[in-house]
């Protein structure tokens, strides 16, 4: 089974999270492809059993332009997108924390919980990344349909 991990990262936090997700996917014997948004050539979503889409948040809760362009490039709403990202509560507290993740998750109507990481995933948040990845992979493998109850809830 092929997994695409597509992410946008300027200072490395979302990339680190993407790499942690990739590591767990490989341990689970999935074939992983990494995609740097804004750098790598367009993708064909249908090639993958799962797409993990990662973004940071910018400018008072905004989605970065490169991510918007990637969404336009895909051109439709694939049903197999899981959304993750990093942010920082110092920029607007809980209300604006990882707002781009909220927006993408809602836009794609993702059937998996979203994953929000405060800056770097290293340390105490590592467990959160692993559990999120395992929850999504378990569901993809067992194709149970609606899995909103797996792992963390969207409001976490
Ligand atoms: C100018 C600026 C604005 C930001 N605005 C937000 C924001 O509204 N919400 C948020 O959660 N994080 C915000 N952040 C924090 C980044 O999203 C956070 O540092 C993120 O981990 C960066 O990801 P990257 O290392 O993958 O580039 C902002 C950072 C900068 C520099």
TrEMBL record:
<protein>
    <submittedName>
        <fullName>Flavodoxin</fullName>
    </submittedName>
</protein>
<comment type="similarity">
    <text>Belongs to the flavodoxin family.</text>
</comment>
<feature type="domain" description="Flavodoxin-like">
    <location>
        <begin position="3"/>
        <end position="137"/>
    </location>
</feature>
<dbReference type="InterPro" id="IPR050619">
    <property type="entry name" value="Flavodoxin"/>
</dbReference>
<keyword id="KW-0285">Flavoprotein</keyword>
<comment type="function">
    <text>Low-potential electron donor to a number of redox enzymes.</text>
</comment>
<keyword id="KW-0288">FMN</keyword>
<dbReference type="InterPro" id="IPR029039">
    <property type="entry name" value="Flavoprotein-like_sf"/>
</dbReference>
<keyword id="KW-0249">Electron transport</keyword>
<dbReference type="Pfam" id="PF00258">
    <property type="entry name" value="Flavodoxin_1"/>
</dbReference>
<dbReference type="InterPro" id="IPR008254">
    <property type="entry name" value="Flavodoxin/NO_synth"/>
</dbReference>
<dbReference type="InterPro" id="IPR010088">
    <property type="entry name" value="RNR_flavodoxin"/>
</dbReference>
<keyword id="KW-0813">Transport</keyword>
């Amino acid at each position: 089974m092929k997994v695409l991990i597509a992410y946008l990262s300027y200072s490395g936090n979302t990339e680190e999270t993407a790499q942690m997700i990739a590591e767990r996917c490989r341990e689970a014997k999935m074939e992983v492809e990494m995609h740097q948004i804004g750098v790598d050539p367009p993708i064909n979503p249908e090639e993958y059993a799962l797409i993990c889409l990662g973004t940071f948040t910018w400018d008072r809760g905004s989605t970065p332009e490169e991510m918007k362009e990637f969404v336009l490039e895909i051109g439709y709403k694939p049903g197999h997108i899981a959304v993750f990202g990093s942010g920082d509560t110092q920029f607007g507290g809980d209300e604006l924390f990882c707002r781009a993740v909220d927006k993408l998750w809602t836009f794609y109507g993702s059937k998996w919980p979203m994953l929000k990481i405060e800056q770097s995933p290293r340390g105490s948040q590592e467990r959160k990344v692993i559990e999120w990845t395992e929850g999504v992979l378990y569901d993809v493998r067992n194709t149970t349909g609606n899995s909103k109850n797996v792992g963390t809830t969207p409001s976490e």
